[in-house]
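Researcher: Here's a chain I'd like modeled. Treat it as a single chain, no partners, no ligands.
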Amino acid sequence: FYLWGNTLSGSIPDSISNASKLRILELELNLFSGLIPNALGNLKSLEILSLWSNNLTTKTSIHESSFFKSLENCRYLRFLLLSSNPLNCVLPTSLSNLSKSLEEFKVEACKIRGRVPVEIGSLNNAIYLDFSNNELSGSIPRTIGRLKNIQLLDFTGNKLQGPIPHELCGLKRLYGLSLAANELDGPLPACLDILEVNLSSNHFNGSLPFDIGKLKVITNLDLSRNFFSSDIPPTFGSLQDLQVLLLSHNRLQGPIAESLGDMLSLKVLDLSNNNISGFIPKSLERLSYLKNFDVSFNILEGEIPNSGCFVNFTAKSFMNNYALCGSPRLQVQPCKNNIPRQNNKALLNAFKYIIPVFGSVIIVVALIIVYKKWKNKSTSLAIVEDPVPIRDWRRISYYQLSRATSGFDDNNFLGSGSFGSVYKGILAEGTEVAVKVFNSDLDEAFRSFDVECEVMGKILHRNLVKVITCCSTIDFKALVLEFMPKGSLEKWLYSDNHALNLLQRINIMIDVASALEYLHFGFLVPVVHCDLKPSNVLLDNDKVAHVGDFGIAKLLGEGDSMKQTLTLATVGYMEPEYGLAGIISVKSDVYSYGILLMETFTRRKPTDEYFSREMDMKHWVKTSLSNGINSVMDPNIVQEKDEYIVIKTIMELALDCSS
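Model: Modeled as a single isolated chain. Structure tokens:
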């Protein structure tokens, strides 16, 4: 009985159980609500029950749902698919009654709470178990090791704690394991020889296991966003079939092992945001399949390899390191390969005798700066007619900018905003740039320029538009920015000549979230963007998103989570409290991000004439979650029925952000 993907509503009638010979019942992607009827347990021949992406719930007793209890009569049930329903229950122990038949059990995003029952180990024939994005807590039971036929096991996005049970190592048929985004800790077991392993965003710590090289079949390993603090073991080089290795956002230290060049199948290697030091080994040039490489935000030094796969990498792969050098296209210093030996000796003497004295001077200066900041802590950013030049930047002259933009010719005009205009330019060395010229007749533009210089000059992140240099005279101020050849997200959403598929939109919004995370938590002084909208999300050639236009960004002092301001963000994207009172915090950006999420996947602006005081964008999307999500989403991006659940989850996140 196939009725999936309609707009059927109301409750599922008990009378459906009168079809006693029914083997397949698929009611997913509808608008059914209310309790899942226990009468479904009377369908003794039932093999497939698919109810995912509705608004169904269950009647819960003290211990478990009565619906699950009723299924003990369904001895032939192989597929039980309930994802994206607010079941609001605990995992039932009565599932053990289906131990001989159940092959797939999916309850993703069902508000399931409590512990994982030890009875889970009795599901002898289970092939795919998906418990992701729920509220499961406690530890993973050791009985999980009894699932001898399991192939895919997903506990992503719960609150599980404790170590990974060693019994998982005995699951020889398991090829996909995801425990990401939990609170698991302890050392990493080296016995998980599984094709794809995702343990990211947990609390794993200590050393990466030295005997990890004994794994023979693993192809994807994601250990990012944990607390590993060891060197990278050279035994990684023995992983001949590994294609994806993600170790970013840990506390790894020491050098990059030469043996990593032996992982000849590697396609993605991300070591960014660690404390890795030393040189990038030339052995990595042998990795002919390597397409994505990232060692940014480390303390690497020396020459960047320039052959093999390295000819395809950009500056983003190497940004924010200690002393890397190489090709100008990588935006690093040129290498100095011919330093005389006596100069090296002089340098050593400088470190031995001069640096300690110089260090003392730095400490004194730092104390003076700290004292002055403390003294002026209660004052706002000063607004002056001629700001102090930014000494760390190599300034560019008005003549050079005029030459780069052909006299700010209209053919190079890219767009305008509340504080100025943007032109495309080509610098003398051939670098394409975007030149943001601020309106000289607006006092507010000078405030924006001062703030933007200060903020952007301190920020380096792969998803933020980079400031290359700036120009400042009494009557002319401009920023020279990294040029984004694919234009803005707004262009791609609303132009008939451009289109973004579902995956591209998801990746873009992940990029924007990454940028906001860095602005808010990446350094001691959090930065509020204040004007997040599609026109300020720019795309490079690979459609990687870069957040730009910090014209009304605010610096928040440490311990000062909110600051009054006279500047306002764009109507429709700003938090109501911000618009009414002129008060902002990092929450303002979260709110704007929620609105941006809705717009990106519905292709409708928050200022659309369709909306009114009675029906704004938030209310429209919220209503759609109960009346049919397909009524609001952009029809150009949904092709398969599985994609409906993705859109629904994204819209729920958007509402949470903008609540």
